[in-house]
Amino acid sequence: MSMHNSSESIIDIQGLSFSRGTRKIFRNVNMEIPRGKITAIMGPSGTGKTTLLKLIGGQLRPDTGQIKIDGEDVHRLSRQQLFSLRERMGMLFQSGALFTDMSVYDNVAFPIKVHTDLPDDMIRDIVLLKLQAVGLRGARDLMPSELSGGMARRVALARAISLDPAIVMYDEPFTGQDPIAKGVLVKLIRMINKALGHTSIIVSHDIQETLSIADHIFLLSDGHVIASGTPAQLLKDDTEQVKQFMQGLPDGPVPFHFSDDDLLQDLYTQESPNA
Amino acid sequence: MLDQIATLGRSTLDRLASAGRSGQMLWQSLVAAPTPVVMFPLLLKQIYFIGVLSLVIIIVSGLFIGMVLGLQGYTILVDYGSEQAVGQMVALTLVRELAPVVTALLFAGRAGSALTAEIGLMKATEQLSSLEMIGVDPLRRIVAPRLWAGFISMPILAVIFAMVGIFGGALISIEWLGIFEGSFWANMQNSVDFSGDVLNGVIKAFVFGVVVTWIAVFQGYDCVPTSEGISQATTRTVVYSSLAVLGLDFVLTALMFGDI
């Protein structure tokens, strides 16, 4: 299943623009995601980080620009080719997105059953090894509704790596997790990346956890990449926008107030809210 | 005034786009149905959820509607001294009209709304996206088995509805009102034509099954993935399906029986 290509970057994004309605999410974004490394895409909420993962996975189409995975332009593939490309990608969704009508075991076994002709006992071995890797071998018979949020995300991680994909994308893996679960996920992501040698892309705004595992970071804001580099380089960066995000300052280039209308003028306007 | 025209234009365009998307979804899921080995267990499961679990409401409603028809038919026909024809009336009313139409309306409420809510919730909890990212087309895996299950279940449910209804009518007419059993069944047998009545009724039921399932699945697949969006989509399924069934019933009746 692995992709054999010796070039430095596995995903190459050129001139990407994307908008939802009239709102421009990306304006001419360029990114090269290095092979075999952990790359983090960070930025304030609403900058389109999850949208970027969906564009990479071919679930959304860009307005202009292209995304190439190992030289294949994702948005020029036929529906069939796109689905076979996705067999080489794993994605951990923010909510886990486990299939609620299947047990933990069946959730992890699902991609293997669908995409391979392996006999049942071999599938069982693979599933148990993946569940062992995330520490949930004992939970194989539980249903998703019986799992805690942290456990559900770990099962989803086991499912995402069940076919040993070349690229694993993590959508906000740390959001809403308690400190212990966060620690477990950080450890797992690092361990799995090292063991399987795949490329990991993490979308997150949890600075501490992400800095501790990322090899390379892209910082997105206002539809652009405003900075990129190693965690150490970004921490030293003294651009206002980068500093505001990395140090978590409430006000700065990203304003605290959503709209800049004058408060007094707004208060004295006679317009009713539903007008 | 201009605003109103613009709103009208926008909503017309939205509806046209939505009709286009629903056609595309139907076509893609029917063309891309999974291989029989994969499809069969999925289809059986859906027939169970959509068809078998609808049996209770279909049987109970069929029984009562048949009983009411027997009673009402008798009170009208007895004035003309032709109460022996009540079997014929019950059977024709059920087979031609009530079985397909009432079954479709009940089917929309019982199975259609459940289909919309289930698929909508799968969308809201990213299960559909996650299938896509696993490399499985949700149109093949989720939509196609549900569509086929609806197409298959609906005519069978309508036939069961008609049978139970006729049984209910017989129960009232023969056991309670004392109509002679022989003339009840003989009149029915003489007047109900297999291809003209039964087959046309089944064709109607099949068409309603296609329309109701298509609307239900599309509303779920295309809904706004929020709790409010799912609630609106479920309501739309029941309203659109009911209107479509009643409207189509007129068209089909005119085509099938209009020249009599």
TrEMBL record, chain A:
InterPro entries: AAA+_ATPase, ABC_transporter-like_ATP-bd, ABC_transporter-like_CS, P-loop_NTPase. GO terms for molecular function: ATP binding; ATP hydrolysis activity. Residues 11-247 form the ABC transporter domain. PROSITE patterns: ABC_TRANSPORTER_1, ABC_TRANSPORTER_2. Keywords: ATP-binding, Nucleotide-binding, Transport. CDD domains: ABC_Org_Solvent_Resistant. This is Phospholipid/cholesterol/gamma-HCH transport system ATP-binding protein.
UniProtKB/TrEMBL annotation, chain B:
One of its GO terms (cellular component) is ATP-binding cassette (ABC) transporter complex. The chain crosses the membrane at residues 47-71, 147-178, 198-217, 238-257. It is a multi-pass membrane protein. It is found in: Cell inner membrane. It holds the Pfam family MlaE. Its main location: membrane. One of its GO terms (molecular function) is phospholipid transporter activity. InterPro entries: ABC_MlaE_roteobac, MlaE_Permease, Permease_MalE. Keywords: Cell inner membrane, Cell membrane, Membrane, Transmembrane, Transmembrane helix, Transport. NCBIfam families: MlaE family lipid ABC transporter permease subunit, perm_MlaE_1. Part of the ABC transporter complex MlaFEDB, which is involved in a phospholipid transport pathway that maintains lipid asymmetry in the outer membrane by retrograde trafficking of phospholipids from the outer membrane to the inner membrane. Probably responsible for the translocation of the substrate across the membrane. Belongs to the MlaE permease family. The complex is composed of two ATP-binding proteins (MlaF), two transmembrane proteins (MlaE), two cytoplasmic solute-binding proteins (MlaB) and six periplasmic solute-binding proteins (MlaD). This is Intermembrane phospholipid transport system permease protein MlaE.
